[in-house]
Amino acid sequence: MHESAVSAPPGAGILQRPYALVTVGACALVFLAAFESLAVTTVMPVVSRELGGAGLYALAFAGPLATGVIGMVGAGNWSDRRGPVGPLLASVAVFALGLLVAGTAGTMWAVVAGRLVQGLGGGAMTVALYVVVARVYPPVLHPKIFAAFSAAWVIPSLVGPFAAGLVAQLASWHWVFLGVVVLVLPALAMLLPALRGVRSGNANGNGSTNRKGSAHGNGSANGKGSDAAGGQVPWALGRLAWAALAALAVLGLNLSSGLPVAGPLLAGAAVVIALLAVRPLVPRGTLTARRGLPSVILIRGLVAAGFFGAEVYLPYLLVERYAFSPTFAGLTLTGGALAWAAASGIQSRLGGRLASPAAVRTGSVMVLLAIAVALLTTALGWPAAVAIAGWVLAGGGMGLAYPRLSVMTLALSTPDTEGFNSSAMSISDSLGGALALASTGVVFTTFTTTAASFTGVFVLTAVIAAAAVTIAPRVAH
Questions:
Q1: For 15-62, what is each residue's pLDDT tens digit?
Q2: What does R_g of the chain's alpha carbons equal in angstroms?
């Protein structure tokens, strides 16, 4: 299978031999991770009420985000050393273990412990799957497989909350966790035959002659994917320590909004710590928007921060200002989810006819325009339908930009740096969203009126999205 990544005919599809099983298995794992995330959001109020865990409610969501950063760095380093097979198997096992712990929990602390383990495995699994894509599929198929990943994330947003609520109502919230464990095993089984031929990260081949490496595309001490003598990539224990520090900063950011006096100070300190800790975890020049791969990684975080920072508050706005029911307010995001899936499919079919830098620029502008529509709706009292329709534009922008940012990350990587760069991209996603959500939480609680609070949130996310639009032209190498 490893050799097929080099010699496969350009016209081959991701659902044709020899890629069919690995495509279905990988997409199934992505789907299950997404479903679990959305399902937990739906049932966590029930869990908290049944277990008396209101004080740990926020931690149940912040914890997986924090430990996921550690998993991303560990899986990236392991993939660069030995290839993605070991990290993928281990990450799926850890993810399943976390589900088992949470699904059998009798206390809220046990649920949180399971969620922490889940986050560690889920973060590592994401990075390992990206490296599998780099090793198994030829570059011509990368837009299609990443579009499939996007669809696998979007589809659960349509069915996940309803299915989880139904399971919790007819059976028990425990089965929302335990049911995913049962489905993870066959998904992994489909991947195993394809993974047998995947070689280690520093082996020659797998397109190393036709892939363009970045001089700043990794975090090893000497700026290369292997050591100075051309040997194996070493264990990056320092990066793991920085990842742990970044995770603590993310956790502090998510908890700071609950401290009325010290919250802003803690948030400011956490932002500084997170930025200092993330520097060794991303390509050099990322925080200064250096042209090429560093800007690709930075844009990924900025687009995620703008989009998810605003999306969290859109249903809240509809409930508070427009008297929507919580269920109906959540369903209003369906249009954005469908647009994300549709735009992902369109960009994959266009392939080389749509240049990746152009897709990223267009997608970033669409996200900014959608947030601006939500801001104007809030500030000027426009009908709710305007913001709901505008969010379709945001979903379309994410569907254009996200898959192409993944494609560009792998295109600017060598086999020795695919793991590091894939983890950097995932870390940018996670930290970007966490920083935005924590910052919007502080902004929301700062103002004294509901209208001003929502306006402040959308102003902040619009500024973040505008930064993405400004930097987007720098993704071209």
A1: 887 788 888 889 989 888 888 877 776 677 678 778 887 667 656 776
A2: 21
Query: Does the pLDDT value for residue 405 go beyond 50?
Result: yes
Spatial distance between the Cα atoms of 34 and 341, rounded to a whole number of angstroms: 14
Rounded CA-CA distance 341/159 in Å is: 14
Integer Cα distance of 362 and 167 in angstroms: 40
Architecture of domain 283-477: Up-down Bundle (1.20)
Q: What is the per-residue pLDDT across 49-69, written as a single tens digit (0 to 9) for each?
A: 788 876 676 567 767 878 888
- Same topology between domain 12-194 and domain 283-477: yes
Residue 215 confidence class, pLDDT cut points 50, 70, 90 = very low
User: For 19, which DSSP code?
Assistant: T
Task: Quote the tokens at residue 197.
Answer: 């031929």
What is the pTM assigned to this prediction? 0.73
Distance CA(198)–CA(211), nearest Å, equals 17
Distance, in Å, from the CA atom of 130 to the CA atom of 26, rounded to the nearest integer, reads 10
We find that the CATH architecture of domain 12-194 is Up-down Bundle (1.20)
What does 346-415 look like in DSSP terms, one character per residue? HHHHHGGGS-HHHHHHHHHHHHHHHHHHHHHHHHHT--HHHHHHHHHHHHHHHHHHHHHHHHHHHHT--T
- Looking at per-residue confidence, does 83 or 330 come out higher? 83
Provide the 8-state DSSP code for 223.
Answer: S
Measured torsion, CA atoms of residues 114, 250, 51, 55, in degrees rounded to the nearest 10: 160
Average pLDDT for the chain: 82
**Helix, strand and coil percent figures for the chain, each rounded to 5:** 75, 0, 25
Q: Tokens at residue 93, please?
A: 């096992």
